[in-house]
Amino acid sequence: MPPRGKATLRDVALRAQVSTATASMILQRKPGVSFSDETVARVLQAANELGYNKPVLKSAFDRPAIAVLIPQITSLYYSFLAQSIEQRANEAGMDTVLFDGHSDSERLLRQMQSVYRLGFAGAILTTPPDMRAASLALELGRKTPTVIIDTYNMDLPLDNVKIDTYRCGVLAAEHLLELGHRDVAFLEIDRWRNSGTCSLRLQGARDCFVRWEDAKLTVYSRPEPHTLRPGSFIETRIMAREMTEEALQNGGHTAFICVSDYCAYGVLDILAARGLRVPEDYSVCACDDIFPSNLPGVSLTSVNRHPEDIGASSFDLLLQRMKSNTPEEKERITHVEYRSSLMVRASTAPPRRA
Questions:
Q1: Is residue 325 over pLDDT 70?
Q2: To 5 degrees, how large is the angle CA 141–CA 153–CA 222?
């Protein structure tokens, strides 16, 4: 037994047979989180028996804080997702700290190492780590309750919320093919600078088009800008304008599939500047369904990935993990899956007549 007054939070958790996170929340009397009377009594008794004294300056935060790692704060999809997590955390009496990885794998590695060292109450990775960071994610999960929002179906033994990104491309492609489009341009901002892998959305669309003998999907691509460079938050739209001009020069296309709504806005810019009508002359379909796409003046057909629901579910999983006490609860891995939905609006219609 440690000397009286020298006990650590871990000692209390071991004595009470609960997780360190549970012991911390009970001893801090954190609002918004409830435990059984029996669990609270065990923790308080263990702290008393061990002479545990809560450190006065244990953390820079007034309340328990969780780390939320996102790839791009300028993306409205991730902004809405992070906001949903923050709202849920606030209801539970916790604060959040955002880490923006700027879609840079090296930066993500550094941030994960910082989260590991700083001792957050929990962590949510809103995009799965690459193979190099996967082992660090597992190490982080052993020390800190961790949830991953997984778009690649990585088989990591961590609680996760799965999103079928491949389905985004399938839904967009099937929609245009069913309308009768057979010559479609796919505009992509390549999000994989460090590998030759194409986006899952593009792969989903391609797999649909190969099943139609008379259908053709032409890909126009630009490298993803690094969002730490000044002005880069508008570059996706500028690149989309360039790709649209290129696609119009090639001729024959009757529709566009855009890898994101931001990309689609660039397409709409050029079509409007050329005096071309949507959807009478060209149909435009995108992925993400961010808030502006639903505005009457835009009315963009897009694939909704439900960021608010995903953010709330990821925090609920994290809180569940933080409250895990029994060996069975600690060993249980929870998977939650969200299926994307196509929101059909005024930007798509059957193709124009020749």
A1: yes
A2: 110
Looking at CATH, the fold of the domain delimited by 67-164+307-339 is given as Rossmann fold (3.40.50)
pLDDT of 230 above 80: no
Three-state secondary structure along the chain? CCCCCCCCHHHHHHHHCCCHHHHHHHHCCCCCCCCCHHHHHHHHHHHHHHCCCCCCCCCCCCCCEEEEEECCCCCHHHHHHHHHHHHHHHHCCCEEEEEECCCCHHHHHHHHHHHHHHCCCEEEECCCCCHHHHHHHHHHHHHCCEEEEECCCCCCCCEEEEECHHHHHHHHHHHHHHHCCCEEEEEEEECCCCCCCCCHHHHHHHHHHCCCCCCEEEEEEEECCCCCCCCHHHHHHHHHHHHHHHHHHHCCCCEEEECCHHHHHHHHHHHHHCCCCCCCCCEEEEEECCHHHHCCCCCCEEEECCHHHHHHHHHHHHHHHHCCCCHHHHHCCCEEEECCEEECCCCCCCCCCC
Q: With bands split at pLDDT 50, 70 and 90, how would you rate the model's confidence at 227?
A: low
Task: Identify the pLDDT of residue 117.
Answer: 77
| Two structure tokens written together for 24 | 């911390």
- pTM here is 0.80
Residue boundaries of the structural domains of the chain: 9-50, 67-164+307-339, 165-305
Q: Which CATH class is domain 165-305?
A: alpha beta
